[in-house]
Amino acid sequence: MSKETPMMKQYLEIKNENKEHFLFYRMGDFYELFFEDAVKASKILNITLTKRSKTSEIPMAGIPFHAADNYIAKIINEGYTVAICEQTEEAKKGSLVKRKVTRIITPATASEDNYVNSEDSLHLCALSYTKNKFGLASLNMSNGEFIVYNPETLEEATEILRKIDASEVLLSESLKGIFSENYFKSIHYLHNDFFNLSKSEKYLTKKNVISKELKNNDCFKESLKSAGAICNYIQYTQKAELSYLKEIKTNIELNQLKLDSTTLKNLELIKNSNGEVHKTLFTTLNETDSAMGARLLKEWISNPPLDRKEIKSRLDNVEHIINEYLDEDLSIFLSEIYDIERILTRVSLKTAKPRDLSNLRNFLRLTPKIIDFLKENGLFENEINQLDDFSSLKYLLEESIVEHPPVLLRNGEVIKEGFNKELDKLKESLDSSNDAIFDIEEKEKKRLGLSKLKVSYNKAIGLYISISKNKNIKIPKSYILKQELKSEMRYTLSELNKIEEKKITANSKAITFEKIIFDEILDKINKIINPLNVYANFFAKIDVVNSFAKVSRTMKYVKPSFGDKTEVINGRHPVIEKYSKDKFIPNDFNLKNNKLILLTGTNMGGKSTYMRQNAIIFIMAYMGCFVPADKACIKYIDRIFTRIGSGDNLSEGESTFMVEMREMSTILNNCTKNSFVLVDEVGRGTSTYDGLSLADSFANELANFCDTIFSTHYFELTNLENTHKNIINMYMDSMKFRDNIIFLHKIEEGSVDQSHGIEIAKMAGIPKNIISNANYKLNQLKKNDNINGKLGIEENLEIINKIKDINLDLLSENEVLKLLKNIQNNLNERS
Known about the structure:
Elements: H1 6-16, E1 22-27, E2 30-34, H2 35-45, E3 50-51, E4 59-64, H3 68-77, E5 82-87, E6 99-105, E7 123-130, E8 133-140, E9 146-149, H4 154-164, E10 168-172, E11 187-190, H5 197-206, H6 212-215, H7 221-238, E12 249-250, E13 258-259, H8 261-266, H9 281-285, H10 291-302, H11 308-323, H12 327-334, H13 340-348, H14 354-376, H15 381-385, H16 391-400, H17 421-448, E14 455-458, E15 462-468, E16 480-484, E17 488-492, H18 494-526, H19 529-555, E18 561-563, E19 567-571, H20 574-579, E20 587-590, E21 596-601, H21 607-623, E22 631-635, E23 639-643, H22 656-670, E24 675-680, H23 688-703, E25 707-711, H24 720-723, E26 727-737, E27 740-749, H25 757-763, H26 768-805, H27 813-830
Parallel strand pairs: 1-5, 7-10, 9-12, 10-11, 13-23, 18-22, 21-25, 21-26, 23-24, 24-25
Antiparallel strand pairs: 1-2, 2-4, 3-4, 5-6, 7-8, 8-9, 14-15, 15-17, 16-17, 19-20, 19-22, 26-27
Helix pairs in contact: 5-7, 10-19, 11-19, 12-19, 13-14, 13-19, 14-16, 17-18, 25-26
């Protein structure tokens, strides 16, 4: 291997400190990647893999500096991290440029609009483990919400991370290897020093985000380590502190309707069965006008409140917007709101750009108009009275930032004239240089007789005068040749060189000074960033409530009430109703003083839809949204459980049956008398008798405990209605017409004993010969069942009568044993 160049030596030193990250090494107008980074990046980014030089074997790949954002986004969306290594000084001929890592971009800390979907919240989570105790913390990077949990088991911790949909999971070294490589999208193992309790508590106390009660609560000590690890990780990757942290809450304080990750998945609330957002409850209700509103809607769907005052307030505001036809006017206002939460994240991390501040200023210009509109129409009165006044910040931004700033701070012309006298002097110097250049331009036009002569500038050669080769002009001796092109010659003058030097110096000083002023403005915003976040969240809330009003009017939803029992009249599934071409057939839901509906009916008859729609109606009501029904009174509940449509969990080596049993275990071990449970066809994947026995036992247990809809194809279970006072039979109606099944999709009281599986197979396009064979086999099985059933009854009666006729007093012990032996032989022969 050839001797390392100074540049490569510098690269290797920096890379050694950032082994786990892709190192984007700045060289002029490109970011270069070397060695394994280059090889991996070429595959992910589909860019050319080259070598450092003809004599070097070092793999290399490069991306243009100006287009880096798109490439970085692709890398972090694959779960990787990118260390940005910038030049920290101007390049000087013959010397190595100083460089350092200025930021590490990770999946959870990538707050730029180019990097992430604006509708997705970014959750940075950390999990620690010490002495049989787990500690988990989650930080929403979009709004600073900080929550700690104390899971008792790894399974519980895993469930929380899945429910949160963690963008990035930080694990202590003691947990190395506990999750498979692709279990979460992005996993990073940190040195145990990141999880130091003493340092964590000191830092969180300094940031004023930890209460005395939490600090003294032993149950959450391990979780506070994780909270500290998150803060340490942000400082390590962003080279800055996060200033907008909210006070840490425990999961116990949240007071939310509990929906686990299984329920979110089974009900297709945020993502559908394919893992996509389309045709979900989110897309059904999402008529928000801002990115902040869309993210908050997802949060409300996943975590509906139990606070009755909050629910009532939302419902009342939805009703008022609908009744007064205010939604269109609100939408006009809200559509002009920028993503202030993400802007504040960038302000906090000192990655904000000039246009972020101009957008923040425009937001503060608009919001007083929205507040006046709300006051005039009696909306959100309590919240408005609690809002802070940010007129001083608005004044600062009005005075300091130009109306239309450039994209990047280094382009200059960001700070308004008159805001800073010293900066104004530097800009005056630049203006005088421009005047001098204009004077030279005019003088040389007359001197050479060229009316179109112009003094131009480019980075490579500086200021120059261009003269076409076609012009028959005598070039003055004072002209200094700088560049010869095919069709023109480029010259400079000693006066131009002096002006250029003066201009470059003044411009560099002005940009440096603008950066100092810009950073000072960021510092001032950071001092009030938490109330600003609350302010931004208020307008996101208006957006979501207005979205509810728009959807509710369009889809003819009704305002739900709350009580001790649930009654839904003509309820509908909101997602299917919106996206299906066919008219949705509504159904009632009423337990009629029972606790469990045992639901039977044909395959494809609508049992699963009926179950899901009622759970979704509950969720919508608790969110503060109107619901798809003619009338709805909703019971007060604490949690919704679902066991619907399991499949194999191949990554964990679990069969369909094991997944079902795990889900049922979660339900039975955690449900309360106030829970609402959906169980759909449990007991598949094992023998008929095993499945039936388990389903029978589950139904009996749940009927004693909480409100449940229990669908099944085990017709034998319908007998439970006769033996259990809390069970009622219901079925989804259908009818057979000319060998075809017509689904009526209407729920009726009673039960049916046919699933019409063969007819459904026929409708699905199974070949006729297979359908014919299946029908023949079905008839044989039914015939055998009848014969065996009758024979069994007759044989059993014969044996029972024989035993009854035995007079044990007249028989010796040997004769009794002989008689039992004969009965046993007869039974063995018949079986």
